[in-house]
Amino acid sequence: MSTSAPLDQLLQLNVALQLFDGVATYHGFATWGEANPLLRGAMATMGATPALLLFKAKACGYLILLRRSRSARAAQIGLTITAVAYGLFSFAPWMARFGSLVFG
Predict the structure, then answer these.
(1) In this structure, are residues 34 and 40 in contact, taking their beta carbons and an 8 Å threshold?
(2) Which of 4, 56, 62, 71 has its CA 20 to 30 Å from the CA of residue 46?
(3) How far apart are CA 95 and CA 92, in angstroms?
């Protein structure tokens, strides 16, 4: 296995979490609103879809830059922290919210 494979997998996980967060935010916005004031302001100004596409494209661009870091260790730490943060503060809460719709 290549030494870059784990970093590539971390990048893929992070991009998947960004895509999940964008889709979940899009679908959950009408019911629960948006807590991030910057995103909420952008959504009010340009609409939900363009704002989410802009924010998620920017986030994915930053993830790619982080992956391309000269230090593989720094990239691994940064991508791991980002994946854990999105898992805890995006994926888990959205799944709980959507689960409450299904399971009451």
Answers:
(1) yes
(2) 62
(3) 5
Q: What pTM did the predictor assign?
A: 0.89
Q: Please answer whether residues 6 and 62 qualify as being in contact, where contact means their C-beta atoms are separated by less than 8 angstroms.
A: no
In a 3-state reduction of DSSP, which class is residue 69?
coil
Give the DSSP letter string of 35-65.
--HHHHHHHHHH-HHHHHHHHHHHHHHHHHH
Start-to-end CA span in the chain (Å): 45
Element (H, E) at 19: helix 5-32
Pick the closest to residue 90 from 11, 32, 8 (CA basis). 32
Assess contact for 66 and 79: CB atoms under 8 A: yes
Query: Please, are residues 6 and 74 in contact by the beta-carbon 8 Å criterion?
Result: no
